[in-house]
Amino acid sequence: MNILTFLIPVSLFLAGIGLVAFFWAIRHRQFDDPQGSAERILMKDWDDHPKP
């Protein structure tokens, strides 16, 4: 039972780190257009030759 006094704060700390990372990712637009690149490669407008 004494292990719970150690594990509960550790789990809350790790959850806090995950929450901060999630809000950081949202703020830095990491989730904008996640499938755009995957669909863009299938379009006919895709330029497979590099521009000179």
From TrEMBL:
Residue intervals passing through the bilayer: 6-26
InterPro entries: Cyt_oxidase_maturation_cbb3
One Pfam family hit: FixS
Keyword Transmembrane helix (UniProt): yes
Protein name: Cbb3-type cytochrome oxidase assembly protein CcoS
Biological source species: Neotabrizicola shimadae
Phylogenetic placement of the source organism: Bacteria, Pseudomonadati, Pseudomonadota, Alphaproteobacteria, Rhodobacterales
Keywords: Membrane, Transmembrane, Transmembrane helix
